[in-house]
Write a structure and sequence with these properties.
about 280 residues, alpha/beta, Arc Repressor Mutant, subunit A, Rossmann fold, 2 domains, five-stranded parallel beta sheet, 13 helices, globular
Length: about 280
């Protein structure tokens, strides 16, 4: 049988990788029944064939099993073992995770949380309702993330709220995981030095992580997420890619997690990161 065209093969591999990440992060639970092939195809905006091939890959990896009436069920018994575990360190630690939209920041944060039991402080989860209300009051679209009003007035307050939530955890002696793009912050040595000094004064450790992802996988994820705030990026994808620097790295010591198509699973990279954090 003839092999699939490279773009089709890459697409089902991307779908399989993202679903695997959803399982490893706990978004999809052990024993959960997946939607039908046609429903998944609509969600991902791909063909039924692509979904079938992605399911085949996941079944071969043991991530899903097929039961009666062709139901596909998540197979992740290790989730039950991880539940309830909490890693305590001699010094509170904040893992700060940055990256571009669709890179996999939130998924990495959830996986690390499952490894450690630490709370995930996600910028969108913490601030989105207030940000959307503020933008409407200021006469802008609630989904605006590009205008000067958002960038100069609203965005700084988002990050203040996230920073305060992480600092509160440290002051209580807890470790935490903070996820947000952090593009401006991680490019600013003064900001990095200030945050590092704050945590040092509390005898806490700051671990900076940058998530890299290839553009095709980022686009696939954003399409699937279907968030209104991503509409402008997806409508002018090539222009968006020209506006960002895929080679960007934080202006301080950091760890790079590669979430590209052919990279190791996020769960494996997360476990290695947690091991390094434990070793200090």
């Amino acid at each position: 049988m003839a092999s699939d065209p490279p773009q089709r093969e890459a697409m089902y591999a991307r779908v399989a990788k993202d679903i695997r990440t959803d399982i490893e992060s706990g978004r999809l639970r052990h024993g959960q029944v997946l939607p039908s092939t046609r429903e998944l195809a609509r969600t991902w905006g791909v063909s039924v064939y692509t979904i079938s091939e992605a399911m085949r890959v996941l079944a071969e990896d043991g991530k899903i099993v097929t039961k009666a009436r062709s139901q596909r069920v998540v197979h992740a018994p290790e989730q039950e073992v991880v539940r309830g575990r909490r890693l305590r360190l001699s010094r509170p630690t904040v893992i700060l995770i940055g990256g571009y939209a669709g890179s996999g920041k939130s998924e990495l944060g959830r996986i690390i949380a499952r490894e450690t039991g630490w709370p995930v402080l996600d910028k969108d989860t913490i601030t989105r309702p207030v940000v959307e209300a503020a933008l409407e009051v200021l006469g802008s679209s609630p989904h605006d993330r590009e205008s000067e009003i958002y960038l100069s007035t609203v965005r700084p307050r988002e990050y203040e709220a996230l920073d305060a939530a992480a600092l509160e955890q440290v002051e209580r002696g807890n470790s935490a995981i903070a996820t947000a793009p952090y593009i401006r912050e991680l490019a600013a040595p003064a900001w990095l030095q200030r945050v590092q000094a704050t945590y040092n004064a509390l005898d806490a450790h700051l671990s900076i992580v940058w998530v890299y992802c290839d553009p095709e996988s980022m686009q696939t994820y954003l399409r699937r997420r279907g968030a209104a705030r991503d509409t402008a990026k997806l409508a002018a994808w090539d222009a968006y890619l020209e506006s960002i620097d895929l080679g960007f790295r934080p202006a301080a010591d950091h760890t790079v997690i590669d979430n590209s198509l052919n990279s190791p699973p996020l769960q494996q990279q997360a476990a290695e990161l947690v091991k390094r954090v434990k070793e200090g």
